[in-house]
Amino acid sequence: MKKQANGSLPIHIEDLTVAYREEPVLWDVDLDVPDGTLMAIVGPNGAGKSTLIKTILDLIQPAAGQVRIYDRPYSEQRSLVAYLPQRGSVDWDFPTNGLDVVMMGRYGHLGWLKRPGPTERRLALEALTKVGMQEYAARQISQLSGGQQQRVFLARALVQDAQIYLMDEPFQGVDATTEKAIITVLRELRAAGRTVVVVHHNLETVPEYFDHVLLLNVRVIAVGPVAEIFTPANLRRAYGGHVEFLLAKAEEPNPLPVQERTNGQSV
Amino acid sequence: MSPQLEIQLVASIVAAACALPGVFLILRRMAMMSDAISHSILLGIAVGFFLVGHTGHPLLIALAAASGILTVSLVEMLINTRRVREDAAIGLVFPVLFSIGVILISRFAGDVHLDVDAVLLGELAFAPFNRMTVLGLHLPQGVWVMGSILFVNLLFIALFYKELKLATFDPALAAALGFSPVLLHYGLMSVVSITAVGAFDHVGSILVVALMIAPPASAYLLTHSLPRMLGLSLLFGVAAAIGGYWLARFLDANIAGAMASMTGVFFLLTLLLAPEQGLLARSRQRRRRRRRFAVEMLLVHLSRHENEPEAGTENSLAHLVEELKWQPNFAQAAVYNAQAEAFVQRQNGLLLLTEQGRQTAQRVLAR
Amino acid sequence: MDSLFDFLLLIFTDYTLRTVTLGAMILGLVSGLLGSFAVLRKQSLLGDAMSHAALPGVVIAFILTGSKAPLVLMLGALAAGWLGALLVQLVVDQTRIPQDSVLGIVLAVFFGVGLVLLTWVQRQGSANQSGLDTFLFGRAAALVMRDVWAMAGVGGAGLLLVGLFWKEFKLLSFDPDFAATLGFPVGLLNVLLTTLIVVAVVVGLQTVGVVLMSAMIVAPAAGARQWTDRLDRMVLLAALFGALAGMSGALISSLSRGLPTGPMVVLCASLLVGISLLFAPNRGLVGAWLRQQRNHRQLRRSAVLEALYGLALSHGDATHAHQLGAVRAAIPGVDVRRTLAALESDGLARGHGGDLWGLTPAGAEEAQRELHRFERHGLDELPTRPSSYPFSAEIDPAEVVK
């Protein structure tokens, strides 16, 4: 059910302003997300990155502006969008296992009252296999490591079979294996023509993983293809001028890791 | 002293004695422990009753306090197994102790004096009839007993004020500095238990909860300072006691129930009317901030499109409504407010920034 | 009663016993099932608060209708409890007062208001107002079939709703934000679920009374959780535990005077929790302690084997014997002698007399295997558990690397 009519964009945001207790968290944001891309959203703490995702999902009401998913409001296009939230918010001692969690991703498709059945089970197992977690289907979720939990939640997003995927810091706090598994899945999604937007915390991996990037600090600092936009000048503007980032892969044989320093504290 | 006055005196002392530890209970997020303890002390009272045969003995207070401590220990123990959550642990422990108490009483004491209802409800009206003479003063027993408890509570808080304050707001630091938060915790719970025991005779266990929680909560809405919170809690407690008495007289109803209702009334009033944190005040602040924010957004939007060719269309009211997705009323109000503050002028149906308006917009953008 | 058989027969023939037992079983079943959600959503004490808050509702219902029909009173209790829950949510959302304090306030103030109304009604002197308080303090012995039918009806309606909205409630309890993005009206569902908890409380009030209701909400669910990691099984088990507690409590209390039903039911429920906490297969504390002892034994054996092996290597002979003292020095804090004795009885070590100990060939092989164990399995498969997990202190590698 892909409503992809003559060049309409997956996500079109205009003049979006969001306030928390009447202090601006997002101000006058304009954004067009191209089709079939892997886009990163980066910015310092408090830049409004999670807020942007949540506003797109109608979890937060904007003070001004609008969001369009393929030219229509989000509420009409829910089934086209999947959400992978930050890992912290769930009760890990809840009596549920990996398969169960992934099946919950199909609840939206099932609608009210209908119970999940063999189809949902099969789809869930397929999604688990895609992230390499099929052996842990029956494992209670608190018995999984951080990276494994993240993969299960990714499977839950995948099983929704959406056109657009919004992810909030999926790589945060995971081990190397999991990170590789996740980026593989994301690349497969892109290859299948889906659009993936990711709030990302690690500046170092942006050029390697993503095609497009949005530099955000309450306002849009810069947005566009990574090669053009991800420059030291822009990063300095986004992070308030205290960034030492040696982009010089071309200039130096051993580029140093990124150091973000805001007001003397490392971020 | 007339009986009326004596009842009010006892009631006020009870309220004051409850309000003091209550402040720390709500700050430490242990309000429901007061409910748990005030019920589980029945066990101690039942055991004490069997040992001494009547309810007036100080042994009962000691045993009841002990069952309060037992409650706290059992709850901690359950939580430490990590199989049960904090709130579930509380909800599991006190009913067991209470049940054992009830069964002991029913089995061995029949319908004596220690009516379960009385435990829950208390009866202040009888206060003047149990008298005790101390130091030549012939006063209701309640004055002496609760008075001593009030004194103990005051002493506890005065002696350990800074430790309590630190342990409540920064337990890690307190531990690091060598003040044992665990000891303080049990100390506070002992105080709560003793207070609950003394008070249950007059107001019953459930209303101990009202007097321990509601006045401090009302105070919490009025101040950020701990000493003031303690003082205000005392004030609210005593006011509820006296107000409750007169309410009960007027309606010819249970005094303790009326006192609890009054604590609720005061809480409700504070909830609505508190200057900064009250609901009315907040709604006013919200409206004010929303107005200011809307004006700022308007100014920024105007300044952004000011010298562009589309300024003609962009800066009209109608366009605002469409572009920013504002409701017409909201847009009009924003414009009106901006005009009132001389940030904006209307000319030929278009909105133009004044110099002041432009500067304000720059300041907002620079934030 | 001459025999157990006669006693059991009494359940069917004695009206009171039958009624009370049935009532208690229904109470247990309903509160166990609905209480599961309360416990999982950290709303355990909501049951306590709601049971106290029900008083004014009961009195007002009586005042308005003049009837003491259980259904009427239950509806009154439901309305008051529901209002209380709403107030709690409102105050928590709008102010900085913590949730437990608001629960306490609603609990005590509503109850106080109810008391005032109750005593006022009693002073009014209308003939039928006695017995209102039995509704609240749980005189199970006063239950009649009419009450039981009301409990079954109201409780049944609640259970039906849970059955209908099972997956919605499951999702809501686990991840409300995700539920919102799927399009479910989270606020409404929240209200519905909280209402059901109030229903559970209201159904049980007559049987166990205000104070003990909290246990009936929490205990069956807490016990059931220890036996299973699946929500559907947990909820059903909780219902079973609740019914069991109700039945046994009612039966035991009928055995002699002076054993009031409410407290007996609570004690039975608590006993079930205690047994579950101790003896449940995976989470049980006894099992966990035994496993921990076994782990420690394993670790001690490995340590001693490796120590002996290490010491022996310098002599080029894996079975070279060494003084006990030397081994002790290598691994301080371990009871070496006892472990060596155990190893000897397993044929992995040998005492050469005079406190000299060495590995046997079999022991040497075992030591070698131990040393290479971690390398073989690879670090990836040893999970690091999030700190919220109950058992982070009890990792059993053998279980994990299944």
List keywords for this structure.
heterotrimer; A: 267 residues; alpha/beta; six-stranded mixed beta sheet; three-stranded antiparallel beta sheet; 12 strands; disordered N terminus; disordered C terminus; C: 402 residues; mainly alpha; ABC transporter involved in vitamin B12 uptake, BtuC; Arc Repressor Mutant, subunit A; 2 domains; 3 strands
SSE order of chain C, as H and E? Answer: HHHHHHHHHHHHHEHHEEHH
CATH class of the largest domain in chain C: Mainly Alpha
User: What number is the mean pLDDT of chain C?
Assistant: 84
Main beta-sheet strand count, sense and barrel state of chain C:
3 strands, antiparallel
Instruction: Outline the biggest β-sheet of chain B.
Output: 2 strands, antiparallel
Strand content of chain B: under 5%
Structural class of chain C: mainly alpha
Helix content of chain B: over 70%
- CATH topology descriptor of the largest domain in chain B: ABC transporter involved in vitamin B12 uptake, BtuC
Total helix count of chain C?
Answer: 17
SSE ordering of chain B:
HHHHHEEHHHHHHHHHHEEH
CA(first)-CA(last) distance of chain B? 67 Å
**What's the CATH H-level homologous superfamily of the largest domain in chain B?**
ABC transporter involved in vitamin B12 uptake, BtuC
At the fold tier of CATH, the topology name of the largest domain in chain C is ABC transporter involved in vitamin B12 uptake, BtuC
Return the structural class of chain B: mainly alpha
Shape of chain B: elongated
The radius of gyration over CA of chain C amounts to 30 Å
Q: For the record, give the distance between the C-alpha atoms at the N and C termini of chain C, rounded to a whole number.
A: 54 Å
